[in-house]
Design a protein that fits this description.
Elements (H helix, E strand, L loop, with lengths): L3 H4 L10 H10 L8 H7 L4 E9 L4 E7 L2 H9 L2 E8 L3 E5 L12 E2 L5 E5 L4 E5 L6 E2 L1 E9 L10 E7 L3
Antiparallel strand pairs: 1-2, 1-10, 2-9, 3-4, 3-10, 4-7, 5-8, 6-7, 6-9
């Protein structure tokens, strides 16, 4: 029987070392009770308990921010009153008063309806009412919990985004 030190020797097998294979297998462990697809779907959508309110002219919505440096930086700006404008028949966007942190941010995301995101190259907020393709530079901030269909209305809308203190 090989001793334990021999098991971890770096021996190329079809250009891949045992150490790489073992490390790759170790990296595939899942959170209990979740499939890999569920983990991928929930990546970037970890609730921090930071609830927000989005007050529009005729409706009030709620949302939940994710636990990331970018979302925390966004929360530090609240309350904010913004004019949301249509963009690409897919989202409402607005400039933010300053750029947000990109610390630990992914290269991009595949947004879906209800996503609240930050588009780093332009420094703007985006609220999606349709799914869109993978977008480099797009960082998840959170999700709309209720009433997101209102963003399908054409035209600009005034919105005040604030924290919900519980």
């Amino acid at each position: 029987m090989a001793d334990q030190a021999d098991i971890f020797q770096t021996v190329p097998v079809s250009g891949i070392s045992r150490r790489s294979v073992i490390g790759g297998i170790a990296g595939l462990t899942l959170m209990p009770g979740q499939s890999g697809a569920q983990q991928a779907e929930n990546a970037g959508h970890q609730d921090i308990g930071m609830k927000i309110r989005i007050v529009l002219e005729d409706r009030t919505l709620t949302g939940t921010l994710v636990d990331t440096p970018t979302a925390r930086d966004f929360a530090a700006l609240l309350p904010l009153t913004l004019t949301l404008t249509d963009y690409a028949a897919t989202e409402k966007i607005s400039d933010l008063p300053r750029k947000l942190s990109r610390e630990s941010a992914p290269e991009g995301i595949d947004p879906v309806a209800g996503d609240i995101a930050y588009y780093a190259p332009w420094g703007n907020l985006a609220i999606f009412h349709k799914a869109f393709r993978y977008s480099p530079g797009l960082i998840s901030l959170g999700v709309i919990d209720t009433g997101g269909e209102i963003f399908t209305r054409p035209g600009s809308m005034q919105a005040t985004i604030e924290r919900i203190d519980e």
